[in-house]
Amino acid sequence: MTLRRTSRHPPPRTCPALLAIFLLILSVQLVRAASEYDPYKVLGVSRSASQAEIKRAYKNLAKEWHPDKNKDPKAEDMFIKVSKSYEILSNEERRSNFDNYGQMDENQPFGQSQHHGFRGFQNSFYFDESFFQFPRSRDFADSKYLLHHAQFNSDVLPDSHKRPYLIKVTSEWCFACIHIEPVWKETVQELEPLGVGIGIVDLGYERRLANQLGAHRAPSIIGLVNGRVTFFHQAVVREHLRQFIEDLLPQKLVEKITDNNYLAFLDSWHVENKPSVLLFDQVPIVPLLFKLTAFAFRDYVRFGYVDQGDTHNTRLLRQFNINTYAPTMLLFKEDTEKPVDIIQARGMKRQIMDEFVSNNKFLQVPRLVNQQLFDELCPVKQFHRRRKYCVLLITGEDQAFLPGSKAFLDFASVNRKDVLRFAYVYQRQQQPLCQALLHNQAALSPQVSGRNVVILERRSHGGKVMYRSVSGGWNGSEEDKYRLHEQLELLQKDPTYLSSDATLPELNNEMAPIFIIQWMNAAYDYILQIYDDLLYSNWREMMPILSLIFSALFILFGTVIIQAFSEGGDRAAGRCSAAAQQALNIIAEIPPAIPSYTRLSASRPPKKDFVEVTELTDITYISNLVKLRPGHINVVLVLTNTSKNALLRKFAKEVFSFSGTQTLHFSFLNADKHRHWMPSLLRSTSDSMQSEGHSDVDEESPDYTGHVLALNGHKKYFCLFRPVFTGDDPNDSSRATSIEVHHKLDRLGLWMERLMEGTLPRLQVPAWPSLGETTSSSTET
C-alpha cells in the first residue's frame, strides 16, 4: 500500500540552500572586515618588534597624522587607528591576547577565537553605530586625551605644576558616562583653549592609574593641580566645572590694583626680583584666562588686574593712556614709569599671552637668587653658535652700593645683545659662589674691595665655567663702563679671552620658605583633604588615615592600661599618695642652686640634662631592688638628713655622664629612717667581706654616710663604694669630721667606670633584707 502526502502549497526546496549561501557570504565578509584591522600593520612594525620600536613608530605616525597638523580628511580616522594600535601593543597582556587569540578586548574570555568573526560584527554593531545607532560609552574622538600610567607620571604630573588638569574617569558600558558626555564635550571646548589640560582614564584598561588617583567608580571627574588630586562632587554642569577649575588654583595669583597701590606693586621688583604685568579690562572679576596665565608663570612674573569700570582707577588709566575698548596688558621691569612691552586685543588668546610673558619673564638685570634662575639665565654652552656669556656684578646690599648697581643697569640697557646676559648677586647671600670666582680676593669683603664684575661662560652642568674678572672693579664711572665694553668686544672676537676656569657650587635658594611655613602649608593641604573626604564620605580613600589614627590610639591606650595594671596591682591608693607627697617633699628640700643636672622623681626615664634619683622606701623598695629586671643595676647612695643636700648634689655630678645608660637606675637610702638595713646587708656577706680584707669594718657602725652600692636585684649581688677620707693618716677616721661631706664622693666617678667595665668585686647575698624587717628589729633593739 502506497502512502501519498499531498499539499496545496509545497515548500520551496531552494530556501535552505539560499540561507546557507547568505550566511557563508556574511561570515566571509565579517571575517575579512575583522582581519583588515591589524595593529602591527597600522604601526608598520613586525610581530617581534620591541616596545621601544613600537613607541618610536607610534610617535612618528602620531606626528604625521595628528588632525591639528595634517589637513587630510582621513587624518582623524588614521590618528584614531594609530592610537588604538599603540594602546593594544603597548600593553603586554593585550598584545598577548591579540597574538594568541586575535582579540583586542581584555574583558572577553580567552580562547574564543572561533567567534572572531562575530566579535567583529559586534564591534561594528556597538562602536560604529552602523545598525541600530546605539550610543557609545567612549567616543574615539577622545582618544588623544586617553592617559596611561607611565605617561601620567612622566608628563601630566609634572605639568600640573604649570596648568590645572580636568580628568574624566570612564569605562565601557557606563550609561551614566553617556549621560554627562554632552556637558563634558562643551566644557572641554571651553577650557582647553584657555590652557586647561584634559585627560580621560579608562577604568577597565588603566586600573593601576585609577587606583593611584583614588578613582574606583565611573563616572568620576578629578581636578589635578600641583600634583594634588581633588574630586568633583557637584552636579555635572559646565558652569560648575569651570568654577571647580578656578577654585583649584592657588589664592592671590592675581592682585587687584587701584590708584592707591599700583606704585607699591610696580616697585616690588626690588624684593620679588620679578617683572610685573598689569591687565586692564572692563569686567570686575579677574578672567579665568588671566588666572591660568598667572599660574603658569607665577615663578617668574607678578600679575595685577585693573578693573577699568572702577572709579578708583581713573589716575592709573590716565597715566598709561589705556584704551577702554579692548583688554590691554602692560609689562614693567626696572622702570616703573614706562612699560617695556604692550599688547592690546579684543579676543585675547592664550598663545598670545604666553608669548608676551615668556619673552619678558626676566628683569633686565635680575638677581641670581637660586640655581634654577642661574640655569635659565646662563645656560650651559651646547654649540658654538649658541654661546651665552653671563656678565655678573658682585655687590652688596647697603645703600652705598645703589649708585654702582644703577650704573650697571644703565650699561646693560644700552648693551643688550642675544649672547649677553646681565645679572648681579649679593656677596653675603651667595658667599660660596663669590669665593669660587674671587678666590684671590676671598679675604676682602665688598665694603673693602668695592664691586667686582665677572664675565663667565658655563661649560657643563656640573658647575664648570670659564671666566675672567674685569680689572679695576666696578664703581659705575664712565671709565668703568668703557673698560667693560672694551672687554666684551674682545670676548666676541676671541672666545679664548676667558682664561680662568672654576667649578661653581650650587647657589643658595634665597626665596625658599622657612621650614615652619612649608610644614604649615603641608598641614593645611592635609586637613583640607581629610575634610573633603569626610564631607563626601569617601571612605575608601579615608581608610589608610583612619587605620593610622586608630592604630596610634590603640597603642597609646593599651600602653597606659598595661602600665596601670603592672604598677598598681600591689599598691594601695593611700600609700601611693604618701609616696607622691614624699617625692614632693624631697624636691622641695633640694636648694635651687642644683637643678641644672639633678632632679628627684618618682619613676621616670633619665633625660639628658638631669639625673633622676629615687628614694628607696617601703613602697619603691620591691620594684627598684627585689624585682629589678635582669641585667639592670640600681646605684644606691646612703645618706642622712643632715648630709642629704650636699651628697645628692655631688652624687648627681659624679654619675651624670653615666645617666644615659638604660640599664642603670639611681636611688638613695636615708640611714636615719632605715639605720639597720646596711648592717643587715653587711652581716649577710661577712664571709665575702673577710675574703676581700674588709673584716675590720664595724657592722654596727652608726655612720654609713657616703657609701654607694651597685645592687643587682636579680642575681643577688652588690658592689660597694666606701667614702674617701683625705688626710695624712688614712687610718685615722677621726679626721673625717673636719672634711666637707661632699668630698666623700670624690672618687665615685672612677668607681663608676670600673663598674661599667665589670672589674669590681661582687658580694653575694642569700636574700635581700627588707626595709620593714630592719625597722622592726630596730624597734626591738
TrEMBL record:
It is a single-pass type IV membrane protein. Gene3D superfamilies: DnaJ domain (1.10.287.110), Glutaredoxin (3.40.30.10). It holds the Pfam family DnaJ. The chain crosses the membrane at residues 545-565. Keywords: Autophagy, Glycoprotein, Membrane, Signal, Transmembrane, Transmembrane helix. PROSITE patterns: DNAJ_1, DNAJ_2. GO terms for cellular component: endoplasmic reticulum membrane. GO terms for biological process: autophagy. This is DnaJ homolog subfamily C member 16. It comes from Sander lucioperca (Pike-perch).
